[in-house]
Specification:
With 319 residues, the protein is of the alpha/beta class. It folds into 2 domains: 106 residues, Alpha-Beta Plaits (2-Layer Sandwich); 195 residues, Vaccinia Virus protein VP39 (Rossmann fold), CATH 3.40.50. It is 30% helix and 29% strand. The chain is built from 9 helices and 16 strands. The chain has a 7-stranded mixed sheet with strand order 12-11-10-13-14-16-15, sandwiched between helices. It has a 4-stranded antiparallel sheet with strand order 2-5-1-6. Strand 13, helix 8 and strand 14 form a beta-alpha-beta unit. It is globular. The structure holds S-adenosylmethionine (SAM).
């Protein structure tokens, strides 16, 4: 089994709180390194086996502290990084100094990730009409009504095969009829935006908070002339966006979907659809409550493996 290692560089006083945040987001364990612990070790002290300890021989931090967490494969770390950064920096509000709050991931190095997954990534018929094809593979559509999405997701999330993406591809296929306006929040590789256009949406705007994702989405849109044009921009959810669209789709974590719910309601036309996934079993109730309390009608709850998706509709005023 592979693990992703996430290290938060912080200060001694914040190590407990940072450990709590990392565990709360699904870490299976944390390791704490604290320069203050080494200050207590004096040269010449005896260790447990009678050896003389010279702290300088032990790899240690010269200053500050670092908390390292380990995440199992079913947690997609790039997705939780913005939440980690946000919650660590917010510790200031509780009177704790989080230091730089710098977050570093390793174990699955960029280089490994960029190449290792390619071995397992082949054309996949994800839904009745949508097939995702790696850009470097030759593929011939088997039916006239099959739509092919060419992708090279690189470091961004969205090969099209993750259950959460699949749920939203299915939801788009169930919802779109043609000529809709669509907002794709947390676009990652751009896969959902490309799918929306290929399924007949007239206009799609895609947003992501991560510049790597924005670049990846733009590159993938280049690979799919039939899906062009799609507008892509860096944005935090729908902050500052005021539109009236037919469909909003978002595959993000439950914690991030909840603040999106009122923004989605505001940006949808009556009878418009809010499609969301990225929700684990523990969170489905709180997300559906937030959606219903906002005034949406839940039309479908979908599930693949441990992941849930929701199709919600903004009702007509007289409903
Ligand atoms: C699970 S990926 C989904 C990618 C793609 N849409 C898919 O379905 O495969 C979630 C994406 O949401 C982005 N994201 C996370 N927080 C965000 C926020 N506050 N605003 C916009 N995008 C965000 C992440 O950078 C990531 O690219």
């Amino acid at each position: 089994m592979q693990w992703t290692q996430v290290t938060v560089k912080t200060e001694s006083e914040a190590v407990e709180a940072v450990s709590f945040i990392l565990n709360d987001l699904g870490a299976t364990g944390v390791k704490i390194e604290d320069a203050k612990d080494f200050e207590k070790l004096r040269p010449g002290k005896f260790g447990a086996h009678g050896e003389i300890i010279d702290p300088n021989d032990i790899p240690h931090l010269e200053k500050g502290a670092a908390v390292t967490a380990y995440y199992p494969q079913n947690i997609f770390v790039p997705e939780i990084l913005p939440t980690i950064k946000q919650r660590v920096l917010a510790l200031k509000e509780f009177g704790l100094d989080p230091g730089a709050g710098e977050v570093v991931t390793s174990a699955v190095s960029d280089e490994n990730w960029a190449t290792a997954w390619k071995k397992y990534y082949h054309p996949v018929r994800v839904t009745r009409h949508l097939t995702v094809v790696p850009d470097w593979e030759e593929y011939q559509a088997a039916q006239d009504d099959e739509r092919v999405i060419y992708l090279d997701p690189g470091m961004a999330f969205g090969t099209g095969t993750h259950p959460t993406t699949k749920l939203m591809l299915q939801a788009l296929e169930m919802t779109l009829r043609g000529n809709e306006t669509v907002l794709d929040v947390g676009t990652g590789s751009g896969v959902l935006s490309i799918a929306a256009r290929l399924l007949g949406a007239a206009k799609v705007n895609a947003y992501d908070v991560d510049d790597v994702a924005v670049k990846s989405a733009l590159d993938n849109i280049e690979l799919n002339p039939k899906a062009q044009p799609i507008k892509v921009a860096a944005n935090d959810l729908l902050a500052g966006i005021h539109e009236q669209v037919d469909v909003i789709v978002a595959n993000i974590l439950a914690e991030i979907i909840i603040p999106l719910v009122p923004q989605a309601f505001e940006n949808l036309k009556n009878n418009g659809y809010f499609l969301c996934s990225g929700i684990i079993a523990d969170k489905i109730q709180v997300v559906t409550e937030a959606i219903e309390n906002q005034g949406f009608v839940i039309e479908e709850k979908m599930q693949i493996k441990d992941w849930y998706g929701v199709i919600a509709r903004k009702p007509l005023p007289d409903e």
